[in-house]
Design goal:
Length: about 110
């Protein structure tokens, strides 16, 4: 199992849209969200809101068995829910999941283990 961590900027003025997206994923489209995440082999997805001097960010942690196949499949998908989700991500963050399915590039720069 792999943990993929990404940081997405929330575009200025899009903070309410982010909260609406989260509400929709928890509510009206929760069954579709569940099928979406499971369909890409995720066993856990968590989002963390971070307020910084340069604006709001969303830190996304995904636990998935196979990263690259899931990312490639997601980028290529035109399934109606996937298309809706990707449109929401791009509108709120400016990141295009069709081009960057794993979000902005992330580099591990420090790790501590006992």
């Amino acid at each position: 199992m792999h943990i993929v961590v990404r940081a997405f900027p929330v575009l200025a003025g899009k903070e309410c849209e982010l909260r609406e997206l989260i509400g929709t994923l928890r509510g009206a489209r929760s069954d579709e969200a569940d099928a979406f995440f499971r369909g890409y082999g995720l066993v856990r997805e968590s989002w963390y809101r971070q307020l910084t001097p340069s604006g709001e960010w969303v830190i996304v942690c995904s636990e998935v068995a196979e990263v690259e196949p899931a990312a490639n499949s997601y980028a290529a998908s035109d399934h109606p829910f996937d298309r809706w989700f990707k449109t929401q991500v791009k509108a709120v963050t400016g990141v295009d999941p069709d081009k960057q399915p794993l979000g902005p590039p992330t580099e591990l720069v420090y790790e501590w283990r006992p």
